[in-house]
Amino acid sequence: xxxxxxxxxxxxxxxxxxxxxxxxxxxxxxxxxxxxxxxxxxxxxxxxxxxxxxxxxxxxxxxxxxxxxxxxxxxxxxxxxxxxxxxxxxxxxxxxxxxxxxxxxxxxxxxxxxxxxxxxxxxxxxxxxxxxxxxxxxxxxxxxxxxxxxxxxxxxxxxxxxxxxxxxxxxxxxxxxxxxxxxxxxxxxxxxxxxxxxxxxxxxxxxxxxxxxxxxxxxxxxxxxxxxxxxxxxxxxxxxxxxxxxxxxxxxxxxxxxxxxxxxxxxxxxxxxxxxxxxxxxxxxxxxxxxxxxxxxxxxxxxxxxxxxxxxxxxxxxxxxxxxxxxxxxxxx
Amino acid sequence: xxxxxxxxxxxxxxxxxxxxxxxxxxxxxxxxxxxxxxxxxxxxxxxxxxxxxxxxxxxxxxxxxxxxxxxxxxxxxxxxxxxxxxxxxxxxxxxxxxxxxxxxxxxxxxxxxxxxxxxxxxxxxxxxxxxxxxxxxxxxxxxxxxxxxxxxxxxxxxxxxxxxxxxxxxxxxxxxxxxxxxxxxxxxxxxxxxxxxxxxxxxxxxxxxxxxxxxxxxxxxxxxxxxxxxxxx
Amino acid sequence: xxxxxxxxxxxxxxxxxxxxxxxxxxxxxxxxxxxxxxxxxxxxxxxxxxxxxxxxxxxxxxxxxxxxxxxxxxxxxxxxxxxxxxxxxxxxxxxxxxxxxxxxxxxxxxxxxxxxxxxxxxxxxxxxxxxxxxxxxxxxxxxxxxxxxxxxxxxxxxxxxx
Lengths: 333, 233, 162
Prior knowledge:
The structure holds 3 protein chains of 3 kinds. Chain A is an alpha/beta fold. Chain A has 11 helices and 10 strands. The two termini of chain A are 24 Å apart. Chain B is built from 7 helices and 10 strands. In chain B, β2 and β3 form a beta hairpin. Chains in contact: A-B, A-C, B-C.
């Protein structure tokens, strides 16, 4: 039974996973700490990792009906994210591993998202091509086998989720931008504006969102927000993003001998993205596997699952485990 | 009562170990990066050299700053999780209290100083009460001169930030000011001893809710005031 | 020289200007970038980094994570304070700690106006204005002797449209 810990950016999360089953999956922003801990705890905002870490670990263990002594190993996100955030999770993980004398493994945040997809879809075949896209990253990874990766594409500028956030903010729609634009788009005409599709003629399978973001901003800058057709803008912008993500993913998949595509990360919750993939994937001969909504955002269950795999391969970290903000996604040796 | 202390909020990381009033270890090392990589190894080193394990520890003391936030977070997280896992009591101790405590042999007003960035300091005023020290007033965060304005009697300055501001202090306070280079070498045991006296009084902090002593409100105010002054020029 | 302004006619011209400045930056340099969404801050940063020996491909937007670190001739800290709402939040996220860490290298700060209170007296401010879909006006302001000298040494015509 493995405890997963994730504090790479905004979320503080802990989870218990055993034999491929998620026993608990606690994310601080979704936890009602007042109710659970008797009102002594103030609201835990994003990035308040020091404040939340003890509570999420305790809750992950308690709500699974387990004891600390039952935890056999710890997996923690230690690569890819904000250093000041990552180090809280790793400090906690090391303290636990040291005291309980159990193995420790450091996980790359993106690998976590790839495992979220695997956890969600037991029948997902290897190899496959995985699209992982969130506020902080946009990547295309050829997953050759368990923990065997080849990064095919990356963002050249803004991440997908970030583009949603910036456009939403520009339109006065609030943060995070993804869910708000997703909802608003349902009421809008996605053909109202034809925003430029990034890198359309390019041979690379990289992503670029800053030109699209700039196009939206420059088209409507200076106009009174009250006069803007917000739903149409949102829908058209979303359409351009989805079009870009789907076409590059299919382009990447065509270069590998795969029959499956995985879609994961925070932006994988987007309904239009799922709709277009569900239509285009099979048309091009691919089965598309989506991550469960509760595992799309940053969470610790995915980290625990990645940890089980890495430990099975014999990989373990020492008590000198540190953190690194940017690290390549490495295959297990 | 055996107490282990951990502090990573300053320029030096400190791990201390005491058995009642007997100091067993005072480990100090220059903080590398954000102190994360070495901290557990240093804790283990300190325990092992006294022939002890984490299971032998009866209580924990944790440095809660003020100081470097990024570094402080490491020690605080280690302290709170060690306390949670071992189910032992925990006390959070401020770096300023620990500095003042190390000068409890001195009979004049004490003023420990910790760097806050952009020429600002965190400070406090303390008076010795024999085996302990008592704080007077609130902690402060801002330009050194603001703190000096409150002082009208002989005072001993100490702490890592003292050297940086020595000249200004001498200019403002003249013969009232004296200085002690504390070196920080005993910070670990100082924190553990302060925690011991709190435990003996039946006090402790809740491990899960322990947070750094940010003092960010006064520091933010000081920085904004400095900026307004700059813009007015 | 305290102020110089340039007009650039394309993203690559913006990057070129950035590169010419990047080549002149020494340790302890802080470059503060101020301008609206899409005005060219990250584009300019790619140029600055190219001038510091960092491949453009490595330079991406750090909006989500606040900071990217690159290793060129000097270590570079690329901060993006877009999501930071005030000095309080900046302090909590350790921006002051990061700026101290950057003293041995170069700090490039997008949306620096969010934390002007945390800047020292020596930095280069770069203000971006959008003139049209591709054209930008870029105004460089020097704070401190180090940057006044840098601006004086910068060649290139004012009002160059390329």
